[in-house]
Amino acid sequence: MSSNQNGEHLKELEVTGCTLLRDIKKNTIVDIYGVVTKFKLPTKTRGQDFVCSISVADPSRGMGQMGDTSINLFHHNSQTLPQFRGTGDIFVLRRARVQAFQNKLQCVSIKSNTTWAIIPSRPSGKDPSNEIVPVNIPGMVLSLDEKDYHVIRILQDWLQTMPSSGNTFATLAPQPSGNNSTTFQFPGKMLRTISQINRPGLFSDLVAEVVGHYSDTERKTTQLLVVDYTTNELLVDQEISRFGVAGRRVIMCTLFDEHHQYCPKVNTGSFVFIRNANSKLDMNQCLELRVHGDRDRKLMNPGVRLLARDDPRLVPLLEKRHEYMSSIQQLPKKSTLQLNSDSSQQRVWTVTKHKDINITPLSTVVASKMANKFRVRACVIDYKPKIIKDMVRPWCSRCQKSCSPCENPNMSCTFCMAKITVYKYQFACLLQDAHGVQLPVIFYDKDAEMFLCNSAPSNLYLEDYAASELKEQIDTICPAGKSSNVWLDFCIQSYMVDIDGQKDRRFRVFDTELKIH
């Protein structure tokens, strides 16, 4: 980059009155802006905090090792520390202390005082008038004003003048896609699709969607079943009823050590970035991934991070998913997967955890007298209560009873008058299998919440949007209270209840999640 280009952007920054990197002084508190040239993922310190190291640059000092300014940020929550999508992001830092280290000045965060924001880099050729949207950082709130946006645009323009090769940004790898979005590779690792992991012993970074997850507390491992909708001949050929995805697409990734311990809460449908996964062949010579901890370093670098749905790294995956879902619509209808007959052509299925349980006919379930767990395949032909808003009931934590729902935002328990603060799902569906046998099953509390894609219960008489969302979900499996001929797998368990001294056998759905696309 020429000195003239550097000077032009420098003059623009000087007009804004912002603090330039060349002007920071030892033992002062500063607000600075910079283009990220290097970064390290958060690691655990010897104390209670995590630390993240960053290098930034601006036109006042230029690029390169001599121009970069180092920043060390500390926080008790690793998720609050910056999670950069790539070098070239813009970093805004408020109230950091300037210190000298090895004859160079660096910025260090001040506990409970320093704040920061990340603005993703603008892909080459993208309209600079587009809205600047900071990355959402859990536990960090920093409001940006017009001056901030002006400085950010200047730095983005400065970055665009960089030559395409031979500079600090060799690790910034734009991959053009069909909608002009940009994906980025983390430096030092190869971002691969599942189809590109073609042999054991290959370390890869991976962007994927979770279709199943299990945690083994005894072995201290977490297993994620993930897809990116590409295929690999080294994978098992799955039936579509198993995970909602057919063919050789689902790969298992096992997390060990700190990666198991600090694995974020994932659900079916979560998008994740998996770092440094090693490919192996299992005992059946099928491909799997493993993310091991570093026992020699007592530093924490989680191998799995949740991705927001607007993350640019998801663009290729979402395109592949759209292609796959479109192809599914052309497949013949099967008992394990049916499409709604309406014009929207939604695809509806369920994901169940217990694949080792064989499908049991409802006649066998009804005839069984022992408390047991079953996996059944049936369609929903009716549900109760008919009023959708009554499917969530107020729950009294004191007397452990539910009350009738109503529109009162400050309702009290009708038994003990305690204030109601908890709500629980409670409804039933009538199942019918291919032999015409019917069975009523109960959806209750956390099991019902899981079935409904982890939608939190609330007072539906006061939450119209939540009520409409629930109605849409129920209508997909039983529109207007009539059978939709959508065949779904359910895990159910039988149990006995005592009603007025009489034993009554009931069935409850568990570990089953409804999927709608």
Automatic annotation (TrEMBL):
Entry's Gene Ontology molecular function annotations: G-rich strand telomeric DNA binding; telomerase inhibitor activity
Name the record gives this protein: Protection of telomeres protein 1
Record-stated family: Belongs to the telombin family.
GO-annotated biological processes: regulation of telomere maintenance via telomerase; telomere capping
UniProt cross-references to Gene3D superfamilies, sorted A to Z: Nucleic acid-binding proteins
Subcellular location: Chromosome, Telomere; Nucleus
Entry's Gene Ontology cellular component terms: nuclear telomere cap complex
Keywords associated with the record: Chromosome, DNA-binding, Nucleus, Telomere
InterPro entries found in the cross-reference section: NA-bd_OB-fold, POT1, POT1PC, Telomer_end-bd_POT1/Cdc13
Predominant location: nucleus
Residues covered by the Telomeric single stranded DNA binding POT1/Cdc13 domain: 18-160
